[in-house]
Write the structure tokens for this entry.
Amino acid sequence: MKVIIISGKNGQSKTLSLGRWTRTLLSLCLLGAPLGVGGYLGYSMSVQDEALDSAALKALQQENQKEQLVLAETKQHTEQQLQALTLRMAELQARLVRLDALGERITTIAKLDKGEFDFSQVPAMGGPESDDLGSSYDKPDFVNAIDQLVQRVEDREQQLQILETLLANRKIEHDIFLAGRPIKKGWMSSHFGLRNDPFTGNVAMHEGVDFAGKRGSDIIAVASGVVTWSGERYGYGQMVEINHGSGYMTRYAHNQENKVKVGDIVKKGQVVALMGSSGRSTGPHVHFEVYKHGRPVDPATYIHRASR
């Protein structure tokens, strides 16, 4: 094999003769170089792939560890919430039992109609069927149980509020209801109407009733109200006047001492004065008057009627 080499300067050429072994070696070099380069490149890429696979695996392992931590925290938080819900449910059940017991006792004491307030039954409910949330919407049983307890507690509280209002109104009606005697001890010494005046002997109108008793004994209000007079008044001596509302007013006269002053709010049965003989009087007693819409009426009607 001959190889011709041409010089770039003067254009001269040289011819080289290559022997058999030389040609073989040259062929091997020419063929081996690409194979070597390809093998090197393949090896380099394989090493890089292995490095990439190792990094990806490590990243996945780290991500998995993070997810496990999040799951563990979520599980712990869920268990804590479940414990809190369990305690809340127990509290609601205990509260419901107390409300039921209280409601039953109040209805018994108040002597309400049987069945009007029944704390032993589940609240009555009803209404047309609604599918606003869709037929597939279902709450967990535990949440439903809590919702039912909350609803029952709210129902009991509502019933108790109605009961409280009812009893409060009943108490107000009882307190302002005129009934009973203005004294704890004593006897009726003079009735309402025409009588002989104890000082002149002439027939005169007596616009109240008299209760005789021991000097200094208690005089009590026959109903709740506001004191509109407390002091000396001509003919009455020391007198207490109480406005009970709804057009009713009572007077307690000839007192030894008044125990209330103008503006005081008094309760039914409260001591408002002590029995005496002040003013136009012949001895220790209380002169008791009842006014209805500004006119005197016979107190006997209110003395003998039963209290509410």
The longest strand covers residues 248-258. The chain has three domains: 1-37, 63-120+140-176, 187-303.
